[in-house]
Write a structure and sequence with these properties.
The complex is a heterodimer of chains A (238) and B (110). With 238 residues, chain A is an alpha/beta fold. Chain A is built from nine helices and ten strands. Chain A has two domains: 69 residues, no CATH class; 151 residues, NAD(P)-binding Rossmann-like Domain (Rossmann fold, 3-Layer(aba) Sandwich), CATH 3.40.50.720. In chain A, strand 5, helix 3 and strand 6 form a beta-alpha-beta unit. Chain B contains two helices and five strands, in the order H-E-E-E-H-E-E. The N terminus of chain B is likely disordered. The chains are: A alpha/beta (238), B alpha+beta (110).
């Protein structure tokens, strides 16, 4: 293993970037491949697939064996709003293996008693996100209904290319939200990425059911992440 | 743990730290598994020249053998592929009691 590859790999993991270490078995030569790198041919296809499903694997091309070690950051969920839905979502996310944290400046909602064992920030999203920035492997769930609290993180999530951006609210509430975000300079293609009404349409009614619908939508967004990335690059190209 | 985004241990961070203090290090990686292998593909065991190690490539069944081979790789600098499983004739000495089969790739850093 090339010492430089090892250093770059560890740095990428610390920065929560998806990377693949590609090793030629016979020689031991390796190189680090970023998700944004373009690799052509059969190898490129295998790399794209591996970034998509996150599975490390052996590969044989033209009689040479390669090992692709895929390092995908653990997906996490940032919830804006320490509400009833968030309490249920915290439990479900844990079961599904997703890290979760809750941000709400309203100290009446954001109490440790209501969120035992959950990473909780009783502060404004502006402040918290400055210290813990969003990234492509983060899902943002905005559930306060309050523009003063929700709008900033939604905009930040779109800018940070979060794999999922969901916002609670009726169609009417969401229409007003889109107007505000458009007025603040968010492009309409970006606005289309917001999932609203939030959650898969399973007719969810209780906070627990809504949490399940949100979790299912997040899982879908994460697992289909590479497909969507393929789509968007086609749009840019055409 | 089947999740593709399994939380990665920091064996490679350990390997880097060892490298930076001038130790010679071998990285062992599970590159293929068949059947009920205990550790998923991509798992690491890192070994230094004194036989100190971090991480795992199995549930403890074959680590001893991997560490012995790592010493050869350390000297020669040539990467090496190891295979363990019940089909192996050494199964009764060093093997996977779970009935699985794994391939482990050993390489020296630098």
């Amino acid at each position: 293993m090339d010492p430089q590859s090892l250093k770059e790999l560890n740095a990428a993991k610390r920065a929560r970037k998806a990377v693949i270490l590609l090793t030629e078995i016979e020689t031991g030569r390796d190189r680090l491949v970023l998700e944004s790198d373009t690799v052509s041919g059969e190898l490129g296809e295998a790399i794209a697939k591996a970034f998509g499903d996150g599975k490390s694997r052996m590969l044989e091309i033209d009689g040479s064996e390669y090992f692709l070690n895929v390092h995908i950051p653990a997906p996490r969920i940032v919830v804006i709003g320490a509400v009833h839905i968030s309490q249920a979502l915290a439990q479900i996310a844990k079961t599904a293996g997703y890290d979760l944290e809750v941000i709400d400046p309203r100290t009446a909602f954001a109490t440790p008693e209501r969120f035992q064992g959950v990473s909780l920030h009783a502060d404004w999203p502006e402040t918290v996100l400055k210290a813990h920035p969003l990234d492509a492997f983060t899902a943002l769930v905005a559930v306060t209904h309050d523009p003063k609290i929700d709008d900033f993180p939604i905009k930040a999530a779109l800018e940070s290319n979060c794999f999922y951006v969901g916002a609670l609210g009726s169609r009417k509430t969401h229409a007003k939200r889109l107007e505000r975000l458009a007025a603040s300079g968010v492009a309409s293609a970006e606005l289309d990425r917001i999932c609203a009404p939030i959650g898969l349409d399973i007719g969810a009614s209780s906070p627990q059911e809504i949490a399940i619908a949100i979790m299912a939508e997040i899982i879908g967004a994460f697992r289909k992440r590479s497909l969507k990335m393929g789509d968007s690059s086609e749009v840019v190209a055409s | 743990m089947t999740a593709a985004f399994q939380k990665l241990g920091d064996e490679l961070a350990v390997a880097e730290a060892w490298m930076l203090v001038g130790k010679e290090v071998v990285v062992a990686t599970v590159v293929e598994t068949w059947g009920s292998a205990p550790r998923p593909v991509g798992s690491h065991l890192v070994i230094d020249q004194d036989g100190n190690f971090e991480g795992s490539v199995s549930g403890g069944c074959v680590e001893g053998s991997v560490i012995t081979d790592a010493m050869d790789v350390l000297k020669s600098g040539e990467p090496k592929m190891l295979e363990f499983g019940v089909a192996d004739e050494t199964a009764w000495q060093v093997g996977l009691s779970c009935g699985g089969k794994i391939r482990v790739y050993l390489e020296r850093i630098g």
